Amino acid sequence: MKHLRTTLGPKSKSELGMILPHEHVFVDLRTPDQPGYAEADIYDVVRLMAPEIERIKKLGVTALVECSTGGVGRRADIDLAVSLATDFPIVVPTGNYREPWIPEWVRQATEKELEAWMLRELTEQIDETGFQAGWIKLSAGDDGMTALETKILRAAARAAAQTDAVIGSHTIRGRVVMDQLDVIEAEGYRADRFISIHTQEEKDFAYNVAVAERGAWIEYDHVGRGGDNEVADLVIKALEAGCGDRLLLSHDRGWFDPALPMGGIPKPYTHLSTVLLPELKRRGIDDGTLMRLTHDNPFEAFAR
Prior knowledge:
Elements: E1 4-6, E2 9-11, E3 18-23, H1 42-58, E4 61-66, H2 76-86, E5 90-91, E6 93-94, H3 104-108, H4 111-123, E7 135-139, H5 147-161, E8 167-170, H6 174-186, E9 194-197, H7 205-213, E10 217-220, H8 228-240, E11 247-249, H9 271-282, H10 287-302
Parallel strand pairs: 3-4, 4-5, 6-7, 7-8, 8-9, 9-10, 10-11
Antiparallel strand pairs: 1-2
Keywords: Hydrolase, Metal-binding
Organism: Rhizobium beringeri
Family: Belongs to the metallo-dependent hydrolases superfamily. Phosphotriesterase family.
């Protein structure tokens, strides 16, 4: 039986309902060499972010996926603290972001060392938190992968092949996604265990369809950030193109930012539930399809 690997342990599909597949609790978009990078008082983060979690719990959301990875301030200990304070499971990644957000130790590590690091976090625990990474989060340059980004991807594919973990990547252009899928398949892993994050940023819709037809997940994660009509139009277009079984929806919102006073002002994770889903239903999308997009697809993408 497959499970979602969360801060509160493995969760089966029967234990879960709606899942948000791309959000952030804590992010630091400064590079890792900057003073104060990823530093914050855990209790300050809990005070700011726990109310945001409580709001979505009341709307029926049962888990979210934290997309802050290495290089952009991943703090698994903070994710765990927020999770425990709200009794709410959070799925935390291993992996590392793109250049220039790659710390020196990752730059110097061999592919074998990176594979072993990710494999340990997927099968044992992240740092000393006591919970396993649920997936692998990477990124690629807008115009193509650098040699260093390719090294990280190859190591990720090898670790993922041993665990059935999904690999998600912040990748803006569809042709770069196709290159990433080539690398993954060359390492013996599968396109259906890849998530094309920020798929909406590729304006050539044919690439959206091509990525889904290759078996990968496409993710429209600008709910509440893009115009509501625009987002609804895109979702319906993807459904009409036959991509419903490979489509994920989320906000890419939050979050506590340690570069801002008191962490800044969070943007809520509620727009999908309160605005987009009612709008899609108003436009004739049936409840079964909405359930698939918000319950079934996120579980199938991230569970292993």
